[in-house]
Amino acid sequence: MAAVLGLARQIVRSGVLPLCHWPPVWGRATRQSPGFLLAPCRTFSNKKILVELDESSGVATMTFKSPPVNSLSLDFLTEFCISLEKLENDRACRGVIFTSAVPKIFSSGLDITEMCGKSPEHYAEFWRATQELWLRLYGSNMVTVAALNGSSPAGGCLIALSCDYRIMVENPKFSIGLNEVQLGIVAPFWFKDTFVNTVGHRFAERSLQLGSLHPAPEAHKFGLVDELVPEEKLQEKAAAVMAQWLALPDHARQLTKSMMRKAVLDRLVAHREEDIQNFISFISKESIQKSLRMYMEMLKKRKS
Amino acid sequence: MAAVLGLARQIVRSGVLPLCHWPPVWGRATRQSPGFLLAPCRTFSNKKILVELDESSGVATMTFKSPPVNSLSLDFLTEFCISLEKLENDRACRGVIFTSAVPKIFSSGLDITEMCGKSPEHYAEFWRATQELWLRLYGSNMVTVAALNGSSPAGGCLIALSCDYRIMVENPKFSIGLNEVQLGIVAPFWFKDTFVNTVGHRFAERSLQLGSLHPAPEAHKFGLVDELVPEEKLQEKAAAVMAQWLALPDHARQLTKSMMRKAVLDRLVAHREEDIQNFISFISKESIQKSLRMYMEMLKKRKS
Amino acid sequence: MAAVLGLARQIVRSGVLPLCHWPPVWGRATRQSPGFLLAPCRTFSNKKILVELDESSGVATMTFKSPPVNSLSLDFLTEFCISLEKLENDRACRGVIFTSAVPKIFSSGLDITEMCGKSPEHYAEFWRATQELWLRLYGSNMVTVAALNGSSPAGGCLIALSCDYRIMVENPKFSIGLNEVQLGIVAPFWFKDTFVNTVGHRFAERSLQLGSLHPAPEAHKFGLVDELVPEEKLQEKAAAVMAQWLALPDHARQLTKSMMRKAVLDRLVAHREEDIQNFISFISKESIQKSLRMYMEMLKKRKS
User: Fold this and answer.
1) Does the beta-carbon distance from B260 to C180 stay under 8 Å?
2) pLDDT digits (tens, 9 = 90+) for C216-266
């Protein structure tokens, strides 16, 4: 697996995979030898994400299993991209449900340790992987459903927003939102675009400026999630929603999805390197580094 | 009438009527000889649409009377464009109410027989007429009110969306939506733009991908229609809404309407020929033709 | 003060202050001699607006005190711009609350006497000052809260829309909206853009075309204001909301605000002179002048 991870990371790092060449070279190889490479696709558990594909329904489940909080480290992002690409290239798979094996948390978002005290090269690699995940997820041809069985701040919220449908456990202790401002940092424009496409301009403006984390009922009220269910009904509901979406003809549904999301996807594709440079110069500022260190200290203290 | 239809169809076909030259040559001729051409405008019934103009109020009613389902055939579209242009150029007319004489259906949308087994030239003519209708209706200087006394899928929904105000009979058996995906086809970008302008990005994304037909109460809840009324109150309500809109100074209201809709109208004007080519190549695909034939078979079976 | 006003007016008139050179030359001078210029900033009352800065909280209050209706005359706009710029350049100030000392009215909007029977040069100066106010207010780095203790039509509504948060007294006799069409005139595109960013496209389209003034409860329902409170709770609530917004790190919040509003601000900056010429040619039309004179007559009769 390490070799595959290395290869994929190289691809992610190069950042030259244009959306129009989907599937990329590596993906094409998969297609050419389905017998060999599809087998591990049925159920493959990597370090951080368990992927299970039910061939009868065509639905895969990706279960985040990276305690304590499913944070999006470079390794997590890379594994996520690879898994997603495998499923995207697998004709047996038409939809993916995302959920968490960690109690109370879906994903805590981007791993702050990746943004703290590292080299510009590392920041670039990390940010390119983050972009890559969003481009693949928001632009996926598969039906994507977020089954949110815990809180989902920042990058965790982005994953949810990038899906076609969001179901959240109705527990008001679980919250979701792009709370970057609370940490002294700023959500990039494509996080914002995805947010605005989901909840509209005004709610996004207010929520982003305040770095709000919205408890599940509030998130539902404002359209940040589509539906609330009791925890024990979550997987059943996700499967039912998936079945509803899969009842539509794939091709027409995919073209329609692309029509809705293309403008926003294209914007990042057109400004990808610039966005990486912006991220590096912003995150490298001493004031930002200091505030991230303080935030990590606070998290450590809270734990102990 | 055949001659007039032929002339109009030629205009529609040529597709060279830019919005800025409104009214076109044919329309100017109308203006120059009001005595001759305005007379039939008072009440003129063509084959598929009855047009009545009440000169005291300045309000015309266009009643679709093309059973069984007021489908938008090339003839229907052509007659619609001509009637609309006549009213647009008639100083006595300031507003139009659209409604149906066919029970339970406002309009079933684009006529599938026009898209099945025909020549590329026919597809081009049909699509240009569809574009023309939308450009005229969405960009109309008149106040336009849809009085929806029946279901309104696909192109029927587009007509409603292109009006200034939508009133629907509160019968939950009547539904409205852009359900193209259900048929295996895709709503063009300007259907989508009109939909997004009405209900916002998120609702549009979900509804378009699922090809949803929303029962009247749901359509009202999500802003797809502005108001629900009992069937017997529909015309009275439409007249009252029209009177409210006509109470405003025409010129300021028209400039404001144009400001709100210009970006989306301009987008089609700029990509009109490209959009026609896209339509032809999409609809000519054997897979699409097959799925349309299957849909028509299903409709036939349902009838018998 | 007259000299300062003259200087500022010259700046406003020249219209060459690009947003990217903020603070402008005059502002920089302020920064260089804080002891001299900051002192009057603590509490300075000009003719039309009382400005009070509470240094302990960092919150200023700008109270409109220009009876009978706080109309936005050229003098009012100029004073408003100067006060806002002073606060913007004052490190002790992080937020501003806008409210009125005139009973029942927040601001009646642009002063019609400035648009009636004047020279093109005057119209240009007046419109440039209106643009300048909006550019400064909508683009302000400070937290801005509108405490609406009265009606707020047209330009008064624009001021409210340009703030970060709007609180209105729950009195249904107080209304708010962009009612320009009622007067036979048209809100410029940047009024419209600000409106759409707040309430969405569909509500804006309908409300602008009808020139609607929405009573407070309706305004709240449609998101035109964020919150309703009893009159006696207004200032307390405004202070509490301000404290909530000021709890966030300034820099991250400001960058986020700019990200949300930049596209719309840039659009006016790019078309500023064109917009002035449009205003002059529109307002100079005899038909428009006539309808404004009639409106003023009506207002005079109503008073007596």
Assistant:
1) no
2) 999 999 999 999 999 999 999 999 999 999 999 999 999 999 999 999 999
